Fold this sequence. Notes:
By secondary structure, the protein is an alpha/beta fold. It contains eight helices and 13 strands.
Amino acid sequence: xxxxxxxxxxxxxxxxxxxxxxxxxxxxxxxxxxxxxxxxxxxxxxxxxxxxxxxxxxxxxxxxxxxxxxxxxxxxxxxxxxxxxxxxxxxxxxxxxxxxxxxxxxxxxxxxxxxxxxxxxxxxxxxxxxxxxxxxxxxxxxxxxxxxxxxxxxxxxxxxxxxxxxxxxxxxxxxxxxxxxxxxxxxxxxxxxxxxxxxxxxxxxxxxxxxxxxxxxxxxxxxxxxxxxxxxxxxxxxxxxxxxxxxxxxxxxxxxxxxxxxxxxxxxxxxxxxxxxxxxxxxxxxxxxxxxxxxxxxxxxxxxxxxxxxxxxxxxxx
Length: 318
Ligand code: SIN
């Protein structure tokens, strides 16, 4: 690419999900195979993409509930490569909604992209009577081509969420995501982006990128929850595992404002004394409001699934 030439290419990486889902009957919005339609076909005929410099790559073709470390490593690796290409303006990733918030967190914390890396998805399969994927993909491209846009974003139902806050909150609605008190970063209206706050910039684990890409397995981090009638036995069961299967970390979802059942807390303190890293998050997904007796530290106020990845990444080099 010549000096001064503008980066115009948008690369769409396909991971599967309902956006690429195929049902036997067009009216079926819940019984379908996620990850069936090739990524290039999802974009065919979309007016918002016509005449654009587009490229497509199928990185995986799966239901995101079945995401494996190898799939995420491949995505992070390919995204990093494309972002480094001076011809590339931005990336779009088509992905299942079920674990998109985990993938968004990983991509942001490891890559902290200076270009837009926009994840999008759908709640209805591509074969639905009225699929939501085509509009979401068009909106994602609008965000990926927005001047000044950067960082990892999740675009769904005309709303642009940040990677630290986004959480799936509904199993069926075509707008299943929420960003809590932080709110959305922007809206996409008729192909135009209306922004309310800064693009994401967090880069907590950028130094661990190579270690993540090389890992054959992530450090074992379990996720437990406090609840009425919680007890010590789940922690004791984890501690009783043979050394090769022993957990290195535990994320515990607290009730209310990071509170724990006394019996569970006592068992977690035993685990901590035995060398297990214990981190707290809120069962309701909101960042804890710090208080002197907070039983364990949280990580950046992250929700439990994101805190689990953050702790695993911290333990990777340990
Ligand atoms: C998935 O997460 O891959 C299936 C569900 C969805 O995309 O909505």
